[in-house]
Structure formats: C-alpha cells, structure tokens
C-alpha cells in the first residue's frame, strides 16, 4: 500500500495524476482514488494529498471513473514507483491519450437572494433537495457495493484456503496409496522369492 507521498517524488505524482486526469477527469478522480483505497493500493492520506495536487492541475472532465486493464496496470506501476520500486520511466510512457476532455470553467452570475422570485427560489430549493436525495442514494448504493466486494473477497480467500487444503489432502492420499502399492509389491516379491526354496526343502525331505 502507498502510505505517504513525499516532496521528493512530486514529479512522479504529477505525472501519475496527469495520466489519471486525462482518463477520468477531476469529476471522477475522487471515486477512482476511493476505489484504490478500497482494494488496498493507497492510503486515505495519500488520496487526500493527490486530490490537493490535482486541484492545482489543468482541469479535465471525464465520462467514467473506470480504467481499462492496461491503464490499471500502468497506474499500478506508478504506485510501485512512488513506493520506492525501481521502475523505468519507459514503462510509464503511454502511447495513447485518454478520453477525458479539458473542462472549461463557465462563469455564472449569481443573483442576490432578495432579487430571486419566490417561485424560482422554490424551484431551486426543490431541485437542490432532489439532487441531495440522489447523491445520498448513490452514496448508499456505493457503500453496499463496497460491502459486497468485501464479502466476495473474503469468500474467495476461504475458497482458496479450502482448495489448498484439499490439494494437501489429495497429496497425502496419493502418497499413502503409493506406499500401500509398494508394500503389496514388496510382499509379492518376498513370497515369490521364498516359494522355490521352500519347494526344494520339501522335495529333499521326501
């Protein structure tokens, strides 16, 4: 896990952020970093530092927070480099650009509250309330998804453990059967070796 970000790696941090922002945008970056926290790639402290640095970078707007498998691989290499691993810069060079687009800020003229018509004010309040409800529902849904992912990961670990134990048990049975087979062969060999001699002794006694 990437625990802390230091000033000595600021260039790599900015390069990684540029890579992410060009793909998911500022609007989706918090969710992507939250995902990285959930799977144990980065800490909360590192995520906060990255969001702060991102606020100073050129703004992008993306359609989704998800990355392709190749993009996730490169993102992981950036994390390993920030953790101190010796990763060559050539592995971090991306031959293709992201889908996010520069986010052009729009200047909005805000009217004083006393100049807003009561009907318009009511509409705005309703609209804000609906958005808050939508956001709360989405946050709840996201929490449920993370909980489900956690349960699935735990189940996977249990199955992997059970698989390992079953393989060990199967190996024990295989070894046991091999020993039994060798014992049977040994007994047959011993019996086969003694039978002729025993026959000669019986013949001479007659």
Structure in words:
This protein has 206 residues and is an all-alpha fold. It has 2 domains: 1-104, no CATH class; 127-189. It is built from 4 helices and 2 strands; from the N terminus they run H-H-E-H-E-H. It has helices spanning 10-38, 44-54, 69-82, 118-205; strands spanning 60-61, 101-102. A two-stranded antiparallel sheet has the order 1-2. The protein is elongated.
Low-confidence stretches: none
Mean model confidence by pLDDT? 82
Q: Which band does the percent of strand residues land in?
A: under 5%
How many distinct domains?
Answer: 2
What is the terminal separation in angstroms? 88 Å
- Number of DSSP E strands: 2
Shape: elongated
Order of helices and strands: HHEHEH
Radius of gyration: 34 Å
What is the helix fraction of residues, given as a range?
A: 55-70%
Summarize the structure.
This protein has 206 residues and is an all-alpha fold.
Q: Which characteristics define this entry?
A:
206 residues; mainly alpha; 2 domains; two-stranded antiparallel ribbon; 2 strands
Task: Produce the secondary structure layout.
Layout: H1 10-38, H2 44-54, E1 60-61, H3 69-82, E2 101-102, H4 118-205
Antiparallel strand pairs: 1-2
